[in-house]
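Fold these two proteins, one after the other.
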Amino acid sequence: MGDLHTIPEQLIFNLTAGNLFPQLSGSKIWSTLPDNTTNPNISTIINKNDIQLTYQIGNGNSSLALPLVAMLLQPNATVVPVRCTYPLSGQYDVLPRFLFYLTLTVAILFRRFKWLAGAALGVAITYSTISAIHFFILLARFTWFHSTTFSSNPEPWNVNDSRNFGDIDFFGIIPVLSAAAVMLSPIITWSSTFRAHRARPLVVLWGLLIFAALIPALLLLYRFVEDLWGLNSPPSFAYCTGTLPKCRWDSMARPDSFDLELYTDCNCVDFCSLLSPKAPLRANMNMSVDLKRQISAKVKLKGRYRRFFIVIMIVWGVATAHGMLNLLFSAWAPTKTRNTLFNALYARPLALLLRVFEGSRRQRIEAKWNVKPNNARGKTGLWWRFRSFVAASIAGTVYLLAMAGALIYPLTFGATIVVNELLAAEYPVSEHSDAIGAWSPWLGLGLVLIASIVMGWHSTVAGSATGIATWMVNFIRYDADERTGLQELVRQHRNSKLDPDEKEEENLLTALPKEISLAWRAMIKRMEEFFNWWRDPVTGSAENRDEGVGLVDLPKDAEYAQLSPQRGASPSDSITAGTARSP
């Protein structure tokens, strides 16, 4: 006979003497266990504290099951109710996520080292693209639990089928999509490195895919915060043998108190692996216990920090809209985008339309419709001053948004990482950081970087070695006044090893401080140029050319002098690069 006190309190409420099955078969945990739909007639309540188990001995079933029964019913153990769920896939474990954050950061900060930035951005694009495609598959295969159905059953679960719910990998995909969206604008606008690269169309297509996936993902995340859908989380129980005071049943069974740390400290095992509801992309997989980390239990997505999460979601939405605008003008520098937009808004309608035609056809249309010259001459009066102000305001706002994004998005990226990790920490993972599936992407990145370093520094190392060897030979062959110095020989052989389109790179360790200083000085130059342009946008937009630099690229002084609007320049309404011919 066994002690009824080993059964959780909510299961023994109002139990009476007699057969146990009809009294417990309606409980949540009982109904989730396999083959518990029929009465086995093996359990009978004797009195208030005792239960009798009746079973046959001498067969394989009893000899194998008795150790488990004895384990579960020992008086020093604690049985705690838990929830079960499918774990996050190893693709979205902590280490792969931080690898993705790192590659995005390296691609931005070391963008002038093409051998390094290209490898880092390639890893980031591959990882996030797979995540976006995975999200589209999940979006199509799950119903994401309609609000009316969810509200009719506040604690829904199904031990047979999970397709009427959402998939937990959604909370591993959101960090990837949001981080990529936040950093896309700096990748495009900060520098000409990626904009001038022949792989720019791939970056644009990648951005379109990320934004196309992030928009519905944000809607789903908002619906989750508003309790309009949920995960399939059948109830089960955990068996704990810990003797610490915190391992008592009354301490562990409180809502939200049973976390991963307590589960480990109290030597618990669970029976969630008995459950395997049907789910797309999870054939023959078993559920695991749904345990939060302590940090996520304190900072809850739907708790006191709910408003903070909603604000971050709004920031992600703004980053998406801004990023799509930057993709539209990704081939142009921000100043050219501003000037082109101003010229288009300030031009006469017919003159703007005539930009479609050239040659004799344009001359005939000009003569037929008596089109006025599309330049500053004749654009006087209150109406044209108002047009100039509106055009400058719109074009200037677009430009200032790009400037603000260059400063704000890197900070937002840090906040995004914090929010993403708090969000993902609420859910169990299928592989921990010591599993090969978690750290193998880091090894793969390391091999890619090693290959890139070999390719990027081979000419320097080989040239230096050849120069040193030549100097040693010359030391024997020539007198001191006849042989070339060591430094000069090394420089000559380094240059001889370089490809025609390759130049010697500076030290990677000293590049980052220089990049930060360069970016700061470039932003100041950009603001000075913008204020000069605002004073006279008509003249400032007259020479509308692409200077080939980004917001944090510092042009040469001679080039920068050409970027500032000069008084007395020939004003015209150029819609493209170069000075337009006056109609």
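Now the second one:
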Amino acid sequence: MVYAEESVSSKTTAEMILRCSDLESKDLFSKSDPFLVISKITESGILVPICKTEVLKNDHNPKWKQIFLSIQQVGSKDSPLTIECFNFNSNGKHDLLGKVQKSLAELEKLHSVAMGESLFIPASVGQNHHNKVLKSQLFVDKYSENIQHTFLDYLAGGYELNFMVAIDFTASNGNPRLPDSLHYIDPSGRPNAYQRAILEVGGVLQFYDSDRKFPAWGFGARPIDGPVSHCFNLNGSSSYCEVEGIHGIMVAYTSALFNVSLAGPTLFGHVVTNAAQIASASVANNERKYFILLIITDGVITDLQETKDAFVMASDLPLSILIVGVGGADFKEMEILDADKGDRLESSTGRVASRDIVQFVPFRDVQSGEVSVVQSLLAELPSQFLTYVRARVLVQIHNRMWNWLGCMEYGYSSPSETRKAMFYVRVLSGYEERRIRSYRLQLQQRLQQAQQRKAALKQVPEQIILSEMRRMVEDMQSLNKKLEETSCQRSIMKQTYAKVFKSIRDLAVTISDISSLVVALVEYFADGQQEAAIEEYFKPIDKEAEIIMKMQLEGEEKTVREMMSAMQRQALLEKAEAEKFANLQNAKTDKHIQEPTGADKSAQRR
């Protein structure tokens, strides 16, 4: 019986971006092709890999994509982790470039102080156990923690794990009736390697399947009076492939050994295709199921490219493939199928697998008992499951967006199948996730800019008013200057009239024969008519000055009103933009994964 227990803290996920500097070159004519392997250390000192980065080609100072480590995987923030940097080699023999041992808490501290940790090479035997410290360093460029739904959350929320098995019946296993055969049924009841793998893996997964009906196939054998089959029902039926429980698989396996003739070659493509069809039908029926195909084999596959094509096609489906290699054969090609060893699988058409769905374990490597075959096989199942489910959620959100928006953005009444397919490709390739993150970053930047504008706007009115007041004062001073010039001209004219009046009076004294004219002129100026003449002269000028002053004041008032109206409109726009952003965030929160409900966690964790 396997029990699972999960605390709230185990849902915390650490998101990190790691990089290295000054890595040693292991390749002869080029730089290294580095990748990281993060492992947790068991109580017995065994390293269990929990995360691997992508391979970066020809790079001495690599910076890998962000990685996610849950507390559930690590154990706790203080649990020691071993981070190893390898140089990738296509033959599977990767060169160790250095490693460090740090907990999540220590990695977080490295990020906070912006310092690196020197890599070291473990000491060889006879070197006094002194590690060789390298100039290469590991840096943590980003570290953050958030709460995410875990593998157990989804199982408690109603997701089922459906177990499927495919058994190798090729002749390389040996005659089942002889003790040296990998298919030999021991009368004492001791299970062979095939039976042990079925019991250990199926014994764990059967509790997460509601009906416990498991598809079981065989491949590489010749049924009675028939050709060699590379995918036949283990129960002997021609119409259905399911058996009842793990005991049903064991009975069907034993029966098949006496009803088929071992043949060959070893082909995986047909079995994987059948499993993919079952998973595809589940998706079409909108079922909350995830399928796990266990393939047990003793030899090297002969349809490597066809198997790659089948694996790449299956990477879009809720399916993981666990491969157990039994016997002493060379399993190098199996290492190729396991995408953890390098780049993702690529089909014959050039299509790359959307995610890693394969885990291969040689049975001979886990027979010591320190790490069980189940522990090794299921180590990556949670991450493979979560990768599929989270991508599936993005697809469902997109479909709802098509329905809600009516494709108004694109001008379509409904999305075509081609457009849907293209979107799925973008989601599964990671493009859509990067686009969403980029959009979120743009929203955050826009929000910051809006806040900055809002803060600046509080200072704008006073500055504008002061500026406008200065301009108005300058204009008033200019206008007053013009009026002063006009007054000066009036004064000059008055002085001129006075001089003329004085000259006339002087002329009247000296010229008596024109006394009558002089008297008339004196009377004209003496009774104040000269002042009236001056005022009459300046009336048009005064009126023009008054009009200019009025127009100037009206223009200033209009400018101030327009300025205040513009500031009010800007404030309303900023408020609407903030409300729109808040509504968008609320809408995204509402569309998030529904919390697991309605399941009895204790029953799920038996």
